[in-house]
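HUMAN: Please help interpret these tokens:
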Amino acid sequence: MFSGIVEEAATVVTLVKEKDNLHITLSCSFVNELKIDQSISHNGVCLTVVKKTPETYTVTAIRETLEKSNLGFLKTGDKVNLERSTKMDGRLDGHIVQGHVDQTAVCSEVREAEGSWYYTFEYEPLQDDYITVEKGSVCVNGVSLTVVNSRDRSFEVAIIPYTYEVTNFHEILPGTVVNLEFDIIGKYIAKIARQILGK
């Protein structure tokens, strides 16, 4: 489980395709703290460390992951948002994030607003419970964010300078594909409501 509080944006070092799998090798400042079989969120996708060197580590994304996320679009040199799993004795500074990306969205607009930025994302819901609500939580590329201007197929988020610099949001432009994980509590409530209403 994660909280959507990104530790840093790692750099993609190499990408190796093997059948339907993609082996992604990255570098970050805490490589020496990682261990084989550890779970790390990459742009919101929970992946397992399978190989390590003193400077890099490698994770593997399978076809299911590549089809539902933006990891298949990665290029060498790209930045990937990283978060290690949440410690159960720590504070939940973001919201409950599973690391199970629901689908992708496309950035349709970026507006600067006196030192902060507003990003608009558009998506075609793959399920009825893939929704946002005003002032609710959503995870975009692994970042826990508060929704503004929630609509049926789009929403906005406001990004402060710290988040802009520490995450890969400074690389997101109109047309960029991002990963979405909708609020798990909202998904449960939406499913229960459908069952009660018989839909």
Observations:
- The two ends are 30 Å apart (CA to CA).
- The first helix runs from residue 63 to 68.
